Each structure stands twice: as structure tokens, then as C-alpha cells.
Amino acid sequence: MKPILIRTLCLLALGILLLQDASAQRGRYYRPHPGYGYYHTPYRGMRVSLNVFAGPRVMYPYRGVNYYYNSGYFYRPYGSYFQVVAPPIGISIGLLPPGYRSIYVGGSPYYYYGGTYYRPGKKPNTYDVVDAPIGASIPELPQDAKVVVINGQKYYEQDGTYYKEDIRSNSEIWYTVAGKNGKLDTDTTSVQDTPEDNGPQVGDMVDKLPDGCHTVIVNGQKYYVSPDDVYYEEVVGKNTISYKIVGK
To answer: How many domains are contained in the chain?
Structure first.
């Protein structure tokens, strides 16, 4: 084999490894899509074109809205695209996605996949979308969960559901549902109703980081932490860079 061809193949292999590594760092992994190469594992808010979404899908009308279901993820039309959305509580499907996980909480059966929880439906062979059950544990976070720090404790949040790390006896890290609907199980106060301290609040946007910030990597995501333990996430606009407060 000619040296130039060997070098070309080595560079190509290196490029593939770097692409996979960068994708893993973001927590959004590429997977093959028949006929269309590779695409991101769906995450909420992601938009896909009609040709990518041309695979098998089922439409579930619910309260006047048509939701489309495909391999464990729910979509709604968004202009000329489809957008991944959180399924409404109460919608029923006829088939659980491949790879779902069975969970028992308080003796009751639940099923989990991709950030969505199900329970057996009222009709035979149906499954209803339900709120995350407090105390349920899963071995991996929903990939679009974000870290937040509340009262000095780290949590991961997705759509108002809060997870807390749980290190098991075999040193595995699982994630346990500690709160839902924006309220933690550790107290009776909504996260949005915690007392104000006249300082920056979660959700605020700033144009410049405070002096003395350092970077941390949590779950593959980079954050900036100020000396007073405020967490910032970089937000890149069309021609600007700003910073969103995601935890305190």
C-alpha cells in the first residue's frame, strides 16, 4: 500500500475518532440512520427535516394536537421541520420503545426511556405517559439534563424533574428522582420560590463573567463558576456571546 494512501486512511480514522469524542463530550451521540448517514440522538428542542424523519412513525392526537411518535421520542410539526418535544402527561402509546427500562416504585410498575416515564394504561396493551415517580432510579441521565446547584446541593434538571446522584455499593453512579414539577422532595418550597438574596438569580443573562471565574466540566458540559459559587453557561448568539446563570 502506498505511503500517501496509508497517511490518508490514518487521518480519516483520526477524524472519525475526534468526531465521536466531541459528540460524546456534548452528551449527544451520533447513530446511523438508514439512507441518511448519521444524526444526533434526539434531544428536546432538536429539529429534524422531513426527509430525516421519513422513517416509521405513529401519530397520536391528544387534546387537539397531533403528536408524532418514533422510537421513544415525541415530535410536533414546526414549520417545515419536526421538533422533539416533551410528551404531555396522559398521552397513551401502543408500544414501548426498544431498550426501555422497567422500574418499580412503591411496588408499582413503571417504564422509562429517554427522559419519559410510562405506566400501564387503562386499555389493554397501552402505556400512559406519567410524571416522574419520586424515588425512581435510572443508570443514566436524560441527555439534555442540565446541572443546577440548589442550597449547596448539586442536581440535574430536565423539564422540571430533578435528579440526584446516588453512588451504589458497587461504585456505580445512578440517578434518583428527587423532585418534579419544579419542586424538590427535600422541602415544600418550589425551586422558583426560594428566597431572593438580591444577587444574580438562576435564569439571568449577563454579558460578562465576574472576575475570578474558573471552569468545570459536569456531565460533559463546560460551566464557569464564580468565586461565590454561581454557575454560568456560555450562550453563543449570532454575533454575541453571553452567559446564563444555571445554578447557585
So the answer is: 3
Residue 111's domain spans which residues? 38-130
Q: 149-183, pLDDT tens digit by residue? A: 887 888 999 888 999 998 888 888 999 999 988 88
Contact (Cβ atoms closer than 8 angstroms) between residue 245 and residue 231 = yes
User: Could you tell me if residue 6 is inside a domain?
Assistant: no
Residue 240 lies in a domain: yes
* φ and ψ of 148, to 5 deg: -135, 150
Alpha carbons within 13 angstroms on the beta-carbon side of residue 217 total: 5
Kindly state the cell numbers that stand for 174. Answer: 445512578
Q: What is the pLDDT of residue 54?
A: 57
Q: How far apart are CA 171 and CA 206, in angstroms?
A: 39
Nearest CA to 246 out of 191, 211, 203, 200 is that of: 203
pLDDT given for residue 82 in this prediction: 87
3-state secondary structure of 14: helix
Give the residue carrying C-alpha cell 427522559.
115
Grid coordinates given for 201: 438569580
Q: Are residues 156 and 227 in the same domain?
A: no
| 33 in a structural domain | no
pTM of the model as a whole = 0.60
